[in-house]
Amino acid sequence: MIEPCISVIIPTYKRAYLLSLTLPTYLQPETKEIIVVDDCSPDTTREGVESLAADDPRIRYIRTDTNRKQPHAKNLGISHAKGQYVYFGDDDSVLLPGSLRRLISTLHEYDASIVGACAPYLTRLTNDKDLSSILEEISREMGQSESLYKAEIHKRLISPVSLEAHFNARTPQPVEVPFVHASFLIYRELAEKTRFDEHYSGNCYREETDFLIRTHDAGARIIYEPRAVQANLPRSIAKGGAHDGSSNFLIRKLRYFKSALENNWYFLTKNKGPLRRAFGLNISPLHRQAVFAMIILRVIASYPIRKVIGHDL
After folding, report:
1. Measured distance CA(141)–CA(136) in Å, rounded
2. What is the pLDDT of residues 64-92, one digit of tens each?
3. How far apart are CA 250 and CA 155, in angstroms?
4. How far apart are CA 187 and CA 189, in angstroms?
5. Are 215 and 113 in contact (CB under 8 A)?
6. CB 209 within 8 A of CB 163
7. Are 142 and 170 contacting, i.e. CB atoms less than 8 angstroms apart?
8. Which residues contact 275 (CB under 8 A, 6 or more apart)?
């Protein structure tokens, strides 16, 4: 019999409409509890979570008095966690069946402190209403992509300069890395000791990388496990959260990227030593930031003109 030992922590903001679809996927046999931390949402998040909790008492609801952003919400969840392990999920992602079992198994097999899941970003879904259909479609797509990623296994998961990561890669085996995606399993005691830096603001870009690179620098072994999958739902479905704001596409994106640049600079200057030790390269924060800015400019330049101006020419 599987012992429920994982506290799943899910921060949420203005996604009440989505929780009935995503939360049930985290209710796996290893789940001791799901702690939903509502970051002062102005919608019906409380009512939605309480309705789900009526069907499964493992779901717990906590609310902040003001909007304090993800690092604070995660720290609050850690403070309330009762499991031996903590897993950080997302309100706009679905966790494929068997993923938590796989993460625990890999944690022990590799004598690791942290194990991160594969985190593909979906661009579309044939059926975005039925959960079983969504999970089947994700599993099918992941299976079809496996041979491609195996053929490109020589490529690094993380660029040592830009720090771009490919945590949707289907590597043929788990890989040791200095950090993983935000969806990861960790011993609760280590999470309590490390905690997230609440100085990150706006979209809080790099808040999880900051947490992970600090644990790695302190001696923690971190493993990427491609067989555990937490899939991010398409942006057309997952509205709100860190991407919430102006209805104008360009303004919304520019605000997001401005926040990403500010947070990335804070991360780079704060973690210059840990990054140098992790990658064995003495690259200045300014150099890394310039590379990151170029990546953002390329992304902006790739947007279709009709999305930028709001209509077809």
Report:
1. 9
2. 999 999 999 999 999 999 999 999 999 99
3. 33
4. 6
5. yes
6. yes
7. yes
8. 163, 213, 268, 283, 288
Percent of the chain predicted with pLDDT > 90:
74
Any idea what DSSP says for residue 233? P
- C-alpha to C-alpha distances, 185 to 101, 113, 122, 303, nearest whole angstrom: 11, 8, 22, 35
- Please name the residue that has the structure tokens 């706009």: 92
State mean pLDDT over 91-106: 97
Domain with CATH 3.90.550.10 in the chain: 6-239
pLDDT(159) > 80: yes
User: 285 vs 113, 126, 218, 268, 279, CA distance in Å?
Assistant: 28, 42, 21, 5, 14
* Cβ contact 183:116 at 8 Å: yes
d(CA 264, CA 299): 16
Closest CA to 6 of 23, 37, 27: 27
| CATH class assigned to 6-239 | alpha beta
- Alpha carbon dihedral 179, 183, 186, 192, in 10-degree steps, equals 90
Q: How many H helices and E strands in the chain?
A: 11, 9
So what's the pLDDT on residue 312?
A: 44
Q: From residue 175, how far is each of 46, 130, 180, 205 by CA, in Å?
A: 39, 33, 10, 24
In whole angstroms, give the CA distance from residue 89 to residue 233: 13
- DSSP structure string for 20-62: HHHGGGG--TTEEEEEEEE-S-SSSHHHHHHHHHHH-TTEEEE
DSSP symbol at 85: E
248: which residues sit within 8 A by CB, 6+ positions away?
310
**What pTM did the predictor assign?**
0.90
Classify strands 222-232 and 93-95 as parallel, antiparallel or unpaired: antiparallel
Nearest-Å Rg of the Cα atoms of the chain is 19
